[in-house]
Amino acid sequence: MDDYIANLNQEELFPDLLKFARQNKVPIINRDSLNLIKTYLYLFSSPKILEIGTAIGYSALHFALANPTAQIDTMERDAKMIEIAQSNFQKYDGNHQINLIPVDALEWDGWEKDRYQIIFIDGAKAQYQKFFAKYQEALEPGGLIITDNIGFHNLVGNDEKEKPKRIKNLVTKVENYNQWLKDHPQFVTTFFPLGDGLAVSWKVR
Ligand SMILES: C[S@@+](CC[C@H](N)C(=O)[O-])C[C@H]1O[C@@H](n2cnc3c(N)ncnc32)[C@H](O)[C@@H]1O
Questions:
Q1: Of 117, 143, 148, 193, which has fewest CB within 10 angstroms of its CB?
Q2: What range defines the domain where residue 145 resides?
Q3: Residue 93 near ligand 1, beta carbon < 6 Å
C-alpha cells in the first residue's frame, strides 16, 4: 500500500538532489514526513519558516515550491553542505524565497521574537532540546515547531536492542526530548509514526 499511496502523491520534484543525497549518504527528510509538512505549509499565507539543518537544501526547496508566498531562513554549519546548498538554491530557487544562514544554530543571535510561523528542527539530534528552547520565542503564538527523527531509526522506546554506548546516550537524549515535549506547558504536541518519526508542536500561548 505504501507505494500505491506514494504514487497518488505528487511525483519527485528534485530527482537529481534525491539521487545525490542517496549516493553520498546525506540524510534528508523522508517522503511521508515531507508531505505532512507541505500540507501545513498550504494552510499559511506568506509564512516565515526557520529550518535548522539545511544539508543540500532538499527540504527547503520543497517548502519553497509548496508555498510560493513562503520565506525560508535555513541554517547550516557544515562548510561542504553550505557550498552544495548554495549551488542548488542558485539553480532552483528562482523566486528567491530561501535565505541560507551559514552558522551553528546554537550560536546565532540574529533571530527576532515572534518572527516565524513554522520552525523545522532537523539538526544534530543531541541538541534538539537546546534548539527548541532557544528558538521557541522566535515562533509566533499559534505557530508550529516540527521536529524530525524523533523515532531515531526505531531505537527509541526499545530497551531490548543492544546498542553501543554512544548510540545509547543519543537514544536517551531523544527519549528525554520527546517526554519534555509531551509535558511542555506552552505547546501541544502530536507525535506521528511517519518516516523516522515526526513531532508537530503547536504553540498555544
Ligand atoms: C538531517 S540533515 C538536514 C536535512 C535537510 N533538512 C533535508 O531534509 O533536506 C542535518 C544537517 O544539520 C546540520 N546541523 C547539525 N547541527 C547543526 C547546528 N547546530 N547548526 C547548523 N546546522 C547543523 C548538519 O551539518 C546536517 O547537514
A1: 193
A2: 2-203
A3: no
Ligand 1 contacts CB of residue 28 (under 6 A): yes
Rounded to the nearest angstrom, the distance between the alpha carbon of 52 and the centre of ligand 1 is 6
Spatial contact of 48 and 71, defined as CB atoms under 8 Å apart = yes
For residue 154, give the amino acid letter. N
In this prediction the pTM is 0.95
Q: Which residues pair with 192 in a beta bridge?
A: 198
- 165's enclosing H/E stretch is helix 165-183
> Going residue by residue through the chain (205 aa), what tens digit of pLDDT does each one get?
777 888 888 788 999 999 999 999 999 999 999 999 999 999 999 999 999 999 999 999 999 999 999 999 999 999 999 999 999 999 999 999 999 999 999 999 999 999 999 999 999 999 999 999 999 999 999 999 999 999 877 778 777 667 778 888 888 999 999 999 999 999 999 999 998 999 999 999 6
Question: How many domains does one find in the chain?
Answer: 1
Q: Which amino acid is at 71?
A: Q
Cβ 119 under 6 angstroms from ligand 1: no
The C-alpha cell that represents 143 in the structure block: 505557530
Phi, psi dihedral angles at 151 (to 5 degrees):
-95, -15
Query: 81: Cβ below 6 Å to ligand 1?
Result: yes
User: Which atom from ligand 1 is nearest to the alpha carbon of 105?
Assistant: 20
Whose alpha carbon is nearest atom 25 of ligand 1?
A: 78
